[in-house]
Amino acid sequence: MIRAYKFLMRPTVGQAIALGEMLRDHCSLYNGALQERRDAYRHISKTSIKYGMQSGQLKEIRAFDPERQGRWSFSSQQATLRRLDKAFAAFFRRIKSGDTPGYPRFRGVNWFDTVDFPKDGDGCRWDATPHDPVTRVRLQGVGHIKVNQHRPVVGEVKTVSVKREGRRWYVVLTAEQPQPEPLPTTGSVVGIDLGIASFLVDSNGAFVSNPRYGRRTAARLQAAQQALSRFPRVRRDKRTANHRRAVEEVATLHRKVRRQRLDHAHKTALGLVRAHDFIAHEDLKIRNMVKAPAPKPDPEVPGGFLPNGAASKAGLNRSISDAGWGVFLAILTSKAESAGREVIAVDPRNTSRTCPECGHVAKENRTTQEKFHCQSCAHIAHADTVGALNVLRAGLVRRNANRHSEKPPPFGGGGVTRSGRA
User: Which of 47, 67, 87, 263 has the fewest CB atoms nearer than 10 Å to its CB?
Assistant: First the structure.
């Protein structure tokens, strides 16, 4: 399996300047390759340029501009060109599927924050000085940079990436390691219902409160953004010291909220994975849930619109984004895979409107946001607990169906279990 590690780097002043120049030059290469593709399609009979053609020009580009392009790793520049190629592949895929295309855009220096090295040892070297008590990563054109390695790296390092977040620099590693031993079985199964009032409610009746980190920081973030808005928009190298401090304040607050959400998601997911062998959750389409409501034209007033609840929907969208359901579910799935647990997503329709006692389905069963009162059998319970129970039952049904649909091993032997063990 592949696992990622992210460590804080401690570059010197000169190394930080070199890292910034590396990002700038890779950004210039990305934008130049994008411009070439646009010009070829518009002016040369709609000619499409592929990655192979642009990668073949790298030697000439490096020889023509040795100060800006020739000093960096050849493979990292190839990775930047692959990044553009993936953007175009995603663009054409969205066109075929009927989604909003989103043509690849030029990147400003402030919006190009990552450089990838596809192979450890090619332009980069993790733990370049193994006999030094301080861990260092070597980057071509920058040197040996100190790294705050807060945990050991298990397995063979495959790729290395350098990432800028505000004024901080991070190194991101991917390492290939053997599948870890699964956790001991507990015999417990659970269904979870994600929400706004409570972050999570399980089928056993346990509640996990919603920390609402974004709402807690909203006042400070608003003040910081207002202070930033007073400065005119200028290039990065033309900013004053006060302008840079205002930008850093906004970035610091956003980074703090993001790290708090990640910490909460990791701890909540770890508790579920350690306690239960099987976890069922709703298959939520979060991107559709946070869409703004469509405008309603007023037929009696030309050019006018009727109220569509956009203000209240905007508040709900902020609360959903603040909860971070998508990040939590991704972390839960990853931890469950490492621990040998099973996670299944089920259809969320009517999970909070179905009575767990008699099976009656009606909108009227959920009398309030929290109360569930069945109109058929008079069963009363918390609405979120009812939803979690129904999610668990649907998940167990789907798990049994998947197991029955699996083909038996040929000749009745040598099978492999769901965990990948013979």
Answer: 67
